[in-house]
Structures are given as structure tokens and as C-alpha cells.
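Minutes, project check-in
Item: structure for the 114-residue chain
Input as provided by the requester:
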Amino acid sequence: MFAEITVAQLSEKLNSDEPFILLDVRELSELNYAKLTDSRLEVAPLSRLAREGIDALPESARAQDAVMYVLCHHGNRSMQVTAWLAQQGWKNVFNVRGGIDEYARRVDASVGFY
């Protein structure tokens, strides 16, 4: 079981000073088409996580008590990663429902579509 947030809720978080990690699990090539720019953004492609497990996580995302919002293109890969992290013991991990595509459609079209 895992929790989710909407893209509207993510937008509120991005506009706050709240400490959290925004983990983008899309492939590196996908970042050329649509990307959020925030100092809290970290990238760990699902393919790398599948190969390397926890070792593929950025250092900042390895603390199991860190608040983390997981993002992908449509929310499917991020849902897998969120569920996996929750199974591994992360307590404050949330899937971003609809992914960056939903974010671009509902919050900020300048993020880009693909």
C-alpha cells in the first residue's frame, strides 16, 4: 500500500519552502521533453533502480524518513517505485498521480508534453 498526491498538491509543495525530495523515475532521454526545475529534484530512472536497487537512489533519497514525491510520465512507473520503496521501509513516500503529463496539462504547460 502507498499514498498518492495530486499534481495540484505537488504544485503547492513546489511553491513552499518545505523540505522534500522530488524523485523523477523516468529515463534520462525523457527529461529532454518535459522536466520540472526545482532544487529538490533528483533523478533515478526505473531501469537503473531495477538493476541496482537501493544503490541507484541518489544519496538524499536514501534516508527512509525523508518525505519523497515520486514522479514519472503518467504515474505508472512512479506507482511501482512508490510501492517498492514502501515495502523497503520508506514511510513518507507518495506517488504523484498522473505524472508529469498531468502536471503539464493541469498546472503548468510550459513544463512540456510528449
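Outcome recorded: Helices lie at 7-14, 46-52, 76-87, 99-106.
No further action items on this chain.
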